[in-house]
Amino acid sequence: RLHNPFLMVDMDKAVDLILNTISCKKTILIFGDYDVDGTTSTAFLTLFFQSINVETYFYIPSRKNEGYGVSKQGIDYAKYIGADILITCDCGINAYDEVSYANKKNINVIITDHHKADDQLPEAHAIINPNRKDCAYPFKGLCGAGVVFKMALAICEKGGFNPELVWQNSDVVTLGIAADLVPIQDENRTIVHHGIQQMDKENNTGITALLKTGGLWEKNITVGRLVFWMAPKINAAGRLGDASRAVKLLTTKNPVYAMEIAQKLKQENN
Questions:
Q1: What is the side-by-side strand order in the sheet with 27-32?
Q2: Closest CA to 86 of 63, 56, 120, 55
């Protein structure tokens, strides 16, 4: 029921660079926005790369000190760790100066975003965004997490990996879809259907902790309940402290650590 991910402009270019980076054992930095869509996108990509035995780094900017979108501090961090490519999640479509700054530091930028694009685009290596004016992708309602989900499926298709590795983390993507209030139609509906099944299986340690601390344990999980009961707690991470805690929560395998973060986010949200 899903559209071919390669119908998105620049998907080929992005996937080729990522597969080449992986085969050369070079370093990847995932740069995500600090809201729920950005942190779930970052967590999903981190988990996906782990599942194909690729270690990555991630960076979430400070809402207070860096503001929205790609930051020069994040690019400096990419340079510091020796990253060859920087993949943005849920941001970057208007990051003209920042992409130019990254280019000067010899860091290839792949932008994944869903926000409306201007006529002029940043000079990134690839820009994957169904809402680019020159993109004929048939479904325009993807959020940032949905876009990286499609990119992961494209990596599997071209790299020969099992697409089940993508679907096993559809629960994390579902959280991003719900929180970003995109229409639960078309591809979003399919992903959410599978994602809620994954939540019921307690597939993700962090999501299970959020269900337990958020009053959703042993209740029917619905998109509405994810929007009002779970998403605000993840948003609290960036509003009252370090938003990277949301990524750590969604990527940890340690249930004690997950409960510690989930309890803290519940207090901060209150």
A1: 57-59, 27-32, 83-89, 108-112, 126-128
A2: 56
What's the rounded Cα separation, in Å, for the pair 163 and 135?
24
Please tell me whether the overall predicted TM-score, pTM, comes out greater than 0.90 for this model. Answer: yes
- Rounded distance between C-alpha atoms, residue 73 and residue 61, angstroms: 8
Distance CA 199, CA 221 (A): 8
pLDDT digits (tens, 9 = 90+) for 121-175: 999 999 999 999 999 999 999 999 999 999 999 999 999 999 999 999 999 999 9
The full DSSP string for 156-216 is HHHHT--THHHHTTHHHHHHHHHHTT--S-HHHHHHHHHHHHHHHTT--HHHHHHHHHTT-
Query: Parallel, antiparallel, or unpaired for β 83-89 and 126-128?
Result: unpaired
- Rounded CA separation 27/81 (Å): 8
Query: How distant, in Å, are the alpha carbons of 31, 54, 92, 102 from that of 65?
Result: 16, 30, 18, 20
Local structure of residue 243 (DSSP, 8 states): T
Question: Model confidence at 188, in pLDDT bands (50, 70, 90)?
Answer: very high
Rounded distance, CA 90 to CA 70, Å? Answer: 10
Contact of 210 with 203, CB cutoff 8 Å: no
